[in-house]
Amino acid sequence: MSNQPDDTSRPPVDNETDAPVDDLSNDQQDDAPEVEVSVGETRDEEMERLRRTADEADKRVLQAQAEAENFRKRMRRDLEDQLKYAALPLVNDILQVRDNLYRAIEAAGEGEAVAGLRDGVAMVAKQFDDTLAKYGVKEIPAAGELFDPNYHEAISQMPSEDVAKDFVVHVAVTGFQMHDRVVRPSQVVVSAGPPA
What we know:
Blueprint: H1 26-30, H2 43-84, H3 88-108, H4 115-134, E1 137-139, E2 152-158, E3 168-173, E4 176-178, E5 181-184, E6 186-191
Parallel strand pairs: 2-6
Antiparallel strand pairs: 1-4, 3-6, 4-5
Helix pairs in contact: 3-4
């Protein structure tokens, strides 16, 4: 017995080209690209349609990129504002301490016995104001200014011969702003003009 394969089990084929053509495997059929072609569409129309589709996709991508960039800028600006104004509540509370220092200076009077204490408290108040200014906290000008509801809070009106109508006659409580935001408005008395 020989170890050679037996050729008799296979039927003879005259020509290999006679093999069936539709004997493609399923894998090969799945890899074939699917092309949508409209019925009655010429090659030029199809190219134009595909160009329009690609242009629309490019526009959508550019729009999404612009929206993402705007979102990043808005978030960065919000974060900067939060950091810039994070100390607002603290500054508002500290301003009450400042007010009390100035009240102590006024209450001390002009006597020689308290001159040293008054001068010491005045130096502390000045240092306090300088420190606030270093962090962007400044006084809102009010005395003699035109009343501005964005910066001033009117506590009353009074007739005045010397001060024109709607101008500040007296400042009861000094207002402050931090950078460009009002921490507390100036509480003022507004002129009602000359008495009638």
